[in-house]
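Case study 2.
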Amino acid sequence: MGDRLKIWYYTELKKLYALSGREKIEYIWNYYKLWIIGVVSCLFLTVFLIVRISTNIEAHWLYGMFANTMADAGTDSALWEDFTDYAQLDLTEKKVEFNAEVYFDYLKNQAKGNDYYNAFVALSDSGILDFITMEPASLEALAQSGRLADLRLERCRDLLEQYPDRVIYYQGQEGPIPVGFDVSDSLLVTKYRLYPTSCALGIGAYSENVEIVGLFLDFILKEE
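Prediction:
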């Protein structure tokens, strides 16, 4: 594959060298316009989401994302109502928002070209995302993106010490990195049926609401 790519690359260069400036532009546009449009659209969507989120979203007590589920788990769902009742947060001061309309798997081509993944990136990079749940293997893979918090950070350390038997690790270059919690026996599976058998939770890399994430963990892990 590498040799074929090199041959294609040098062949295209020779073609371009033989053309005038105007002809080069026409050639590139005629043969590569779909690729150009795709890349530009992806960049535009990412920038648009980051700007939109950072300028228009109200302050949150908690922003949670439940990926790859068909269950009703968004804002105003039974899960949302039960948690907000449990947490006793002042919703006139800040919002609690749950998003259950996201579908992507980092195990598949690192989710490239997936608009839902781009939305996750925008939410994470803007610091809005506090946690995400998905299947454990998918969460471990998602850690490669750098958008899940290392639980050894000071702001996450209390949770790491509170739930040591639930920690999910990502194998980094310098050894295992704790990036999430296995909550397969939690209410997300047993009561609310978000996932059929297994579930994991990771904290957003730039979340400033880790304490409230801990409150959510307490809620879903409590005994009925």
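The mean pLDDT is 87.
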